[in-house]
Amino acid sequence: MSDLMLLCLIAFVAAFMFATVVGGWREHLKKARTSTPESAPGVGDVRVTMIVPVRDAEDTIVALLQDLYAQRYPRELLEVVVMDDHSTDNSQELVRGLMRTWPGLRLLKNEGEGKKAAITTGIDAANGEWIVITDADARCGPSRVQRMMEHVGTEQPDFLLMPVITEGEGGLLQRTQVDEQAALLGVTAGTALGGSPLLANGANMAFSRSAFRAVRGFEGDRWASGDDVFLLQRMKRAGKRIGYLLDPEVAVIVQAEPDFKAFWQQRLRWAGKMRGVGGSGNWISA
User: Fold this and answer.
1) Strand partners, 164
2) CB 285 within 8 A of CB 172
3) Beta-carbon neighbour count of residue 85 at 10 Å?
4) What gap in Å lies between CA 188 and CA 198, rounded to an integer?
5) In angstroms, how far is CA 64 from the centroid of its own chain?
6) Cross-strand partners of 166
7) Do 191 and 283 touch, CB atoms closer than 8 A?
8) Are 188 and 198 in contact (CB under 8 A)?
9) pTM to 2 decimal places
10) Judging by DSSP bridges, how do beta strands 252-255 and 139-140 pair with one another?
11) In the chain, pLDDT over 90 holds for what percent of residues?
């Protein structure tokens, strides 16, 4: 066999394997989209704490908090904890302004440094059994918590992944990010629905507080980023039930990075956390 034929054979085998994997993900997505959900039980008296880690988010935090205030979930069972991670802008003052008329909103200072420490501090102070993480630059619809908790009541997961949709105003850089994030969303949903989750997005995930404590949270992590994939790996190793809710009502929307500098810094953070995770999943997701 010539070298050219050997290369063609290798390329064919690789393409076939790729098509098989992606085809499997597509079938899981199709099934999730077309299946009729079971009648969800009432949400009962499950308390939910929504944690929003914030660092210098004065341009986005008010819009997000307005979305969280509008949630169609029993107000007495829902609280929002904004974790300030050493902001130097007007973020804290904006949150305090909303707190005057919103008893369910709290502002706490991060006892450590970085997003993982902020989340941990928020969970330690939370009153809810279920924790929902939302990035400060995201937006969401009013049925997000309600639909999420209906799913939790039916499927009983310990850790729940949900969609993150990236939008861009135009231009090649932002259109590239929109397509890129759509692909990563497909990987995240397809693998999770297939029972072998590879990725997670910290802008929209939820878990029971007891499960977080059972896997010891982020204790011992030395990487600055990766609150999502590191927690996913810990949940998997502990045998926790990991679910994915493919429902537009629970999706959050984020904006694509506006310039190449921010784009590049974001990818450096991602590269750092994926290097810390290790394993063959990195190659598969790539």
Assistant:
1) 252
2) no
3) 21
4) 6
5) 15
6) 254
7) no
8) yes
9) 0.84
10) antiparallel
11) 60
C-alpha 136/C-alpha 33 separation (Å) is 28
**Three-class DSSP labels, the chain:** CCHHHHHHHHHHHHHHHHHHHHHHHHHHHHHHHHCCCCCCCCCCCCCEEEEEEECCCCCCHHHHHHHHHCCCCCHHHEEEEEEECCCCCCHHHHHHHHHCCCCCEEEEECCCCCHHHHHHHHHHHCCCCEEEEECCCCEECCCHHHHHHHHHHHHCCCEEECCEEEECCCCHHHHHHHHHHHHHHHHHHHHHHCCCCCCCCCCEEEEEHHHHHHCCCCCCCCCCCCHHHHHHHHHHHCCCCEEECCCHHHCEEEECCCCHHHHHHHHHHHHHHHHHHCCCHHHHHC
Quick one: average pLDDT of 125-148?
97
Residue where the block lists tokens 């809810």:
128
User: Residue with structure tokens 């209906």?
Assistant: 150
Distance, in Å, from the CA atom of 250 to the CA atom of 143, rounded to the nearest integer, reads 7
Q: What is the reported pLDDT for 87?
A: 95
One-letter identity of residue 111? E
Length of the chain in terms of residues written: 286
Within 8 A by CB and 6+ apart from 107, the residues are 81, 82, 84, 92, 95, 96, 99
- Reading the block at residue 95, the tokens are 């949150």
Query: Given a cut of 50, is residue 28 above it in pLDDT?
Result: no
